[in-house]
Please model this.
Amino acid sequence: MSRTYRNPVLPGFYPDPSICRVGEDYYMVTSTFEYFPGLPIFHSRDLVNWRQIGHVLDRPSQLNLDGIMPSRGLWAPTIRYHEGTFYVINTLVDNEKDCHNFIVTADDPVGPWSEPHWLDDAPGIDPSLLFDDDGRVWYTGNRAPLGGEEFFLHREIWLQELDLATMQLTGEKHSLWAGALHRAWAAEAPHLYKINGVYYLMIAEGGTGYNHSVTIARSEAVTGPYEGNPRNPILTHRHLGRDCPIGNVGHADIVETQNGEWWMVMLASRPYGGYYRNLGRETFMAPVRWEEGWPIVSPGLGRVEFVHPAPDLPEQHWSTSPTCDHFETDTLDYRWNFLRTPRGDFWSLAERPGYLRLRLRPQMISKWENPSFIGRRQQHLSFAARTAMEFAPQSADEVAGLVLLQNSDFQYRFVYTLAGGETVIRLVKRSQGEEEVLAERPVSAERLYLKVEAIGQEYSFYYATTVEAWGPLLENADGRILSTDVAGGFVGAYIGMYASSNGQPSENVADFDWFEYVGLAD
Model:
């Protein structure tokens, strides 16, 4: 029986995948927006089993996200390899939506990666690179057409040469293609390839939501003119209806294996409980075959499935990551992220060995700040997450516990605090910027256990003062506020540990002994 694999190959908020091959090794990067470290990098030898080997931007000097609003920050990256050097090119989008494109390099994909080389006069988003066989390097991005926008998000793909010596663009800018569809909007995510002497320009159209799609054009010359594939789009799910279990498929990159097979990675989402996408946009994969000089995605099906035949590559499994982090190492696991660039010495694995210590600070998770929050992606439609915390609140401003986060205005905060002179466990729902205390109960404990269980869109919150003696604080809360379809933006839901003094000074700390996340049957 032939081997199969299951999509998504990277579950949870891992959008805008870009991939490259070096010999028998494959590397992939994805977007991170307002989260730090930026741009996780993954390694595989069979295209199915991936392990994270680091982040491209893991130093504050590389990535300043101070004050960045939700869903700004780092958008779609591209990774390429040429003559011993890895290149990642990316866009930092600021709060005014100005786009700042840059390149970082490394000899080893594990890092360290260089400081950013910022590109002058490089408008638009989604930059990509082609290392041509004549030694020239080409940059592609998107921009508003030079003649002006004729309709909403009217964009075109443009090209310019990159000088590797100066890491700056040089020469003339060339307009390449405005997309396959009449009045196609949001032409973006360009990747340029040279295959059998022909240049192929693959892009995304229709926006990154329900109407997302992948289209392609080709040319004998890098500067064009480009001929669109008469069978465009080569991939979309928008015609399958909102009850399709895989939605908003697009923003793709392709790679050829050492055995001559072609594969496409792309973003897509798993809506559930209706058309709600709490997990954001995830990384999926599908086979590609070439016919008459054009790629056929998922031959015979024309869509991305949850199960496909596996690539013709030796299977390579990696050591599995533990479901429970006991915080007994010197550094945080790659799965953990901060909101924006971490400023100040607000967390420690050393001050109390075997615990993650969070310092209470005035910064709040409901503002565009860098709060004392360390979180990880929700990666399953149903899951259970729990932690053991030691914290003694000294005032009503001091809180610590768990947060389920979509963005600063859509979240659940499950915290321990003071109210009326007694300690309480409290569940706060924040939706559209308005807050509501859904449940509160007096509890007194030096060591408190907190648990969240989600079965689809029903999220339940439990607590205990002794091991496994769980009691409900609130069951079946509406999880849809954690979806992009309610909250807006481009990220997926996070769950993590949080401590704050809510605008007031504090010397207090919260200690987390362990954190466990387990995916339940999807």
Q: What stands out?
A: The radius of gyration is 23 Å. The CA atoms of residues 160 and 173 lie 5 Å apart. Residues 4-309 form a domain with the Tachylectin-2; Chain A fold (CATH 2.115.10.20). The chain has a mean pLDDT of 97.
